[in-house]
Amino acid sequence: MPNPSQQPEQIRVHVFITGRVQGVGYRFSTRDEANRLGINGWVRNLSDGRVEALFEGSKAAVEEMIKWCHKGPRAAVVKDVAVEYEEPEGLLGFETRR
Description:
alpha+beta
């Protein structure tokens, strides 16, 4: 029988967001949303115009974060969100990388 005090299962996803996602506050909005959902990881711009992010947290929170990535901040125009599932590493905190 599972122990109710155990943390929910942690998952990790590596996402690549394509569209008008640079110069619109996408990274900072992603950080704010990740902090709101209690997600650990990071986000950064790529030289090809995409945004790359890594999210670790409960399955429910990470799925909510992926859903959010499809919209992004108001000025963003998201065309695609590619999601790769990976093994969690136990990251702590969320950072915006350059």
